[in-house]
Every structure is written in structure tokens, then in C-alpha cells.
Amino acid sequence: MSDSLGWIIVAFALYLLLMVGVGAMYAKKNNSTEDYFLGGRKLGGWVAALSAQASDMSGWLLMGLPGSIYALGTGQAWIAIGLFIGTVLNWLFISGRLRRYTIRANNALTLPTYFENRFHDKKRILLFISSVTIVVFFLVYTASALAAGGKLFNSVFHVDYKIALTIGAIVILVYTFLGGFMAVCTTDFIQGTLMLIALLVVPVVALGVIGPDSVLSNIEMSGVAGGADAFLSLFNNGGEPYRAVDIISGLAWGLGYCGMPHILVRFMAVKNEKELNKSKGIAIVWVFLSLALAWVIGIVGRAYLYPEVLTGGEEEKVFINMIIKLFTEDVKIPIIAGIFLCGILAAIMSTADSQLLVSASSVAEDLVKGIIKKDASEKTVFLISRITVLVIAVLAYLIALDPNSSIMGLVSNAWAGLGAAFGPTVLLSLYWKRTNFAGAAAGIASGAVTVLVWDYIPLIGGQTLGTATSLYSLAVGFAVSIAAIVVVSLLTKAPSDEMIREFEDVSQKEINFDE
Questions:
Q1: Residues contacting 294, CB < 8 A, separation 6+
Q2: Alpha-carbon distance 154 to 240, whole Å?
Q3: Which DSSP symbol is given to 372?
Q4: Chain-centre distance of CA 394, in angstroms?
Q5: Burial of 153: CB neighbours in 10 Å, binned 0-12, 13-18, 19+
Q6: Could you state, in order of their start, the residue ranges of all structural domains in the chain?
Q7: What's phi and psi for 236, nearest 5 deg?
Q8: What is the residue-level pLDDT of the chain in tens, covering all 515 positions?
Q9: Is 57:344 a contact under the CB 8 Å cutoff?
Q10: Which residues contact 219 (CB under 8 A, 6 or more apart)?
Q11: How is 107-153 classified by DSSP, letter by letter?
Q12: Residue 481's closest CA among 435, 414, 413?
């Protein structure tokens, strides 16, 4: 194993040096905040697609989802189904319209600035509440990525979890700190490609080793609740029949897409219509394949790793264990093990870097330059954004210090908060011209508060509403936010004639972004 570990270390070292090198290369090309936060709006189709999806899926795709399927069975795939539907709808109905509207809304660089300009918020209230919401929930989201990185290094190199966590955090910090948006998107493109290759190869090779005929018997012997048939049923969850509330909660994950700042910012940066249309097809195919293959890994991993059975939170390491066992014991090509383990690291890094950058833009561009110091120079904004990256990373690191923290749980909470706060506001700002400033403010605030109350405050016999009802907070928060936007907008002053003209310009495609 020592020789194998040496090759794995070589692969990791080369990969990490490549990522830092990309950051250093793009550091020289950042001449303005538009370059640093949106890459000068020059994102190509392939990079936009893979960057958006890689930054979205995170360690959840290669650890959280396969781990939950490994532990509880195919029924956990309802989350993946919801995410696929959400991805398709987001690219088809949000991407192009948002890109046009950000141009019409005074060339907005960030989601909070878009809200401010879209609703003519002279007092910058929307800018403030949306920026604070982003920073709060991205703290938790970034912590999930850092925790995943810590578990990966801990499993592979058997170093202390805290040391492993520190290594991963430092590398992510360095290239995000240096290169900004284009560095993040370029590395995300590399990482998205590597993730898909790893997802394709590992289950195929594992099946070849154990033989397809052994899958069912090994799953049965591994002691899954309800037996192999229940494990492979979409309508069973850990041996128990799936309830309607479980399916609704799984599908509700798809609602989050239209409110994710780190995904929406890719739409805002695409170079032109041609590249955007190319991105749509690439992204939809990528996410279908990656989600389907992550589901396969959970099933095949249960059979392949037997007689080893992962329990007690170790289930999220199923893909890691498969790679190590496959390429250091069965096939014995340790350099491939290192490359594919880098695929898991890629999934982790691709999300953490995006979240750090969006948090930095919210603080530096929106809060500081937008509210506190409106005459701040480009140099000042750069400095503050980099300080913000450092501070957010340190706070997320502190949250992730608990080695028992669940990647799935952290992602779930952050996804719900961002999706409920911003999703309805983005959707209605693009498709309902009666939406006004008051409605938008009510939607963002009510969505975020609903998720916090639902998930964190024990209101029923010492339990939270989420635990008591088993209903995902995003479903509730999204519904509450939409209701608040509609009711408050109708009860308050209608949008100005200028706002209506802007809306109609975008609706009728009077705004284009072709070069």
C-alpha cells in the first residue's frame, strides 16, 4: 500500500499545483471588478455549462448522494430526480432572460445588484438583505465543501481530520484569492470533466471485478433493510415505504436552482446567445449523466465493498473506498486511483471556490461599494473582496471542524435557505411585471426566515417543524416566499412606467448580448 500511496500523493500534488497555476495565470488578467467577478462577461459555452454544474454539485454529488443511496437505497434518488428537473428548467427559462435583464438593469455584476436595479431600490434595502443572506447561507455551504475535503484527505492519507481540513482549505483559498471568476470557471471546467470521467469508469470497472450476477446477492448479504428488492425500489426508503411527503421533499430540491447565486452568476457572464444555447445542451446532458452515475455508484458500491459494510456516517465515503480498493488492490493502477480521487477533490473545490467568490462580491461590490463607501476605488474593492474570501473561509473552516458533520445535512440547509430566499424573487422578477420592490423584499426575507425557523427552532415537543413533519424546508420556504411576493406586490404601489418598459424590453427580446 505504501507504493500505491506514493502514486496517489503524486497525482494529488500535480493536480493541486495545476489548480494554483491557473489561479496565478488569471491573476494577471484582472484589470477591473467586472473581470474579477464576471470574467469580463466572456464565458464560452463549454466553460459556462461545466462550471455552473460543477460548482452546483460539490462533494454532495460524489459523497452525499452515493452515501445516502448506499445506506438507504434507490428511493434516495428522488432528490436527484428533483435536481435534474430543476436544472433543465433553470437553463431553459432563467438563463437567457436573466442574462438580458442584468444588461438592461444597468449592467448588474451580482445578484443583489440585479435586484437593486431591477426594482429601482434607491435606498438599497434589497442590496443589503440579499447580500447578508448570501453570506450567512454560503458560510454553511462552504463549510460543507471544506468538511468533504477533510474527510477525503483523512480517508486517503489517514491524517488527522483537522490537518486534512486545513490542507484542502488552503489550496482552495490560494487560487480563488489570486485568479477570481475566470480562474474559478476554468478550474471548474477541468474539475467537471474529471468528475464525469471518474463517475463513468469506476462503477464499470467495479462491476467487471465482481460480475453483474453478484450484485443482487451481495446487496442482500450486506444486510440492507427490507432486502435487495426494497433497496432497489424507488418507493422504499431504508426498508420503509416512501410516503408522499418524502417524494415531495426530494423533488423540492429542484426548486433551489433558480435561487443559487453561484449558478446564476454564470448565466450573467456568458459571452453571447450562441454560447448560451450551446451551454444549455451541454449542462443538461452533464447533469443527467452525473446524477445517474452517482446513483449507480451507491448501488454498485454496496455490492462491490461487501463484506465491508459502511455505517456510522462512513457511508459518505463509499466512492472513496471503491476507488482505493479498485485501483490499489484489484486492478493495481494506483496513479489512476490518485487521478479519480482528485475527481472527488474537484467536486469539492469547484463549489467552495464559487461560494467564496460570490460571498466576496456580495461584501465588496454590494455592501461596501454599494452602501458603505460608494466612491471606493477598484483597488479598494479588490482588497476588500480578497479579505472577504479569507474571512469567509476561516469561518467556514471553524464550522467544519466537527469531523461528524454531515455533508448532506449542511448542503441541505444551505440549499434550502438560498433557494427559498432568492428563487421566487428571481422567477417572478423575470416573469411577472407587477412584482415590485416591496414584494421582492418580502419574498427574500420571508423565504430565508421560514427556512431558519423550520430547520433550527424547536417548536413541537422539542422538535423542529422539519423533523416533526419530514417536509423539506425549501418546499415550505419557496411557497411562503411566492405568496409574500404576490400579496405584498398587489397591496402596494404598482411598478413605475420605467420599470414596466424595462420588463417589456426583456420579455420581447429587445435586449441582446451578441458580440
A1: 61, 62, 65, 66, 69, 80, 199
A2: 33
A3: I
A4: 19
A5: buried
A6: 2-507
A7: -125, 145
A8: 467 788 888 888 887 777 667 666 665 555 544 544 444 455 555 666 666 566 566 667 888 889 999 999 998 999 999 999 999 999 999 988 998 888 887 777 778 888 999 999 988 899 889 988 988 888 887 888 788 778 888 888 888 888 888 887 887 777 566 555 555 566 666 767 777 888 889 999 999 999 999 999 999 999 998 899 999 999 988 888 888 998 999 999 999 988 988 788 777 777 777 777 888 888 888 889 889 999 999 999 999 999 999 988 789 889 999 999 999 999 889 988 888 887 777 667 666 766 777 777 777 777 777 777 777 777 787 778 778 878 888 888 888 887 776 667 777 888 999 999 999 999 999 999 999 999 999 999 999 999 999 999 998 888 999 999 999 999 999 999 999 999 999 999 999 999 999 999 888 876 665 54
A9: no
A10: 228, 231, 232, 299, 302, 303, 306
A11: S--SHHHHHHHHTT-TT-HHHHHHHHHHHHHHHHHHHHHHHHHHHHH
A12: 435
Work out whether the CA dihedral 235, 240, 243, 249 comes out positive or negative: negative
CB 94 within 8 A of CB 264: yes
Say how far apart CA 156 and CA 150 lie, in whole Å: 10
CATH class for the domain made up of 2-507: mainly alpha
Q: Collapsing DSSP states into helix, strand and coil, what is residue 406? A: coil
Which is it for strands 236-237 and 458-460: parallel, antiparallel or unpaired? Answer: unpaired
| Collapsed DSSP state (helix, strand, coil) of residue 374 | coil
User: Rounded to an integer, what distance in angstroms lies between the CA atom of residue 402 and that of residue 46?
Assistant: 37
244-278 burial, b at 16+ Cβ within 10 Å, e below that, comes to eebbebbbbbbbbbbbbbbbbbbbbbbbbbebbeb
Q: Write down the pTM of the prediction.
A: 0.83
**Residue 245 in grid coordinates:** 411527503
DSSP 8-state symbol, 270: B
Residues sharing a CB contact under 8 Å with residue 88, sequence separation 6 or more, in sequence order: 284
Q: Cα separation of 381 and 56, whole Å? A: 26
Residue with grid cell 433543465, as numbered in its chain: 88
Collapsing DSSP states into helix, strand and coil, what is residue 459? Answer: strand
